[in-house]
Amino acid sequence: MANVIQQMEKATEYSAANLMADAGVDVERWNRAPDEATLRKTIEAIEVRNVRVILVDSTEDALRALVDLLPEGAEVMNGYSTTLVEMGFDRVLKENPKGWRDYHAVITAENDTEKRHALRRKSVAADYFLSGVQAIAASGEIVGCDKTGSRMGAWPHAAAHLVLVSGTNKIVPTVDEGLRRCREYCLPLENQRAQHTYGVGSYIGKHVILDREDVEGRITLVLIRQPLGY
């Protein structure tokens, strides 16, 4: 598995570094690594809210942790996430070393539009749903935003297990700052990606804030000491 994981790490043309100039974002404000004291305080605040945190140093370690979290044969779905792509999870999923039931592959293989939309709605209730995040408040709340909600629908309740991935560059002081990060940093970058990929722009249609989780062990955050994603 170690060799497979090492081969999975990759950069992408849609990484933030390749879109920042055209997006016109404030990199100094919204893409900073926290100091160690802030990082530790943030992890403690997240875990008080019943979200498990796995802190790792590299994308290689993060990918290994992610694979370990997904049981053999589990039903797995992921929303699009630049962080997951930068980690190389898309290629690990294609390799499928643990025989997962890849819900995303089932959806993309369906040619009937109505059936594909129905599958996508059902996919938010997958056994394991993987997602990136847009901001993490030092007070412990985790913030997500999306155009349609297809990447956020699993967060509050639907997925049996929610596995989040994030670089430490997404830590901000407060929830309000997290929402501003969504508007002033994530959206302009995602808008650039959407225009390049789909030929249309993007907007924020949905916000989700994870404040506290009732179900023990349902949510895990893999937190990486690297600037990843938006």
User: What's the gyration radius in Å?
Assistant: 17 Å
Widest sheet, order of strands:
1-10-7-4-2-3
Subunit arrangement of the protein = single chain
- Binned strand content: 15-25%
Could you name the ranges where pLDDT drops below 50 across 5 or more consecutive residues? Answer: 1-9
Write down the secondary-structure element order: HHHHEHEHHEHHEEEHEEHEE
Instruction: Provide the helix percentage.
Output: 40-55%
The count of helical stretches stands at 11
Overall strand count: 10
What class, by secondary structure content? alpha/beta
The shape, in one word, is: globular
The major pleated sheet works out as: 6 strands, parallel
Termini gap: 28 Å
What do the pLDDT scores average to?
Answer: 93
Can you give a write-up of this model?
A hairpin with a 4-residue loop joins strand 5 (135-137) and strand 6 (142-146). With 230 residues, the protein is of the alpha/beta class. Mean pLDDT is 93; it is low at 1-9. It has helices spanning 2-8, 20-23, 27-30, 36-48, 59-69, 82-87, 89-95, 103-109, 113-123, 154-158, 175-198, and strands at residues 52-56, 75-78, 101-102, 128-132, 135-137, 142-146, 161-167, 171-172, 206-210, 219-224. Strands 1-10-7-4-2-3 form a 6-stranded parallel sheet, sandwiched between helices. A 4-stranded mixed sheet has the order 8-5-6-9, with helices on both faces. It is built from 11 helices and 10 strands.
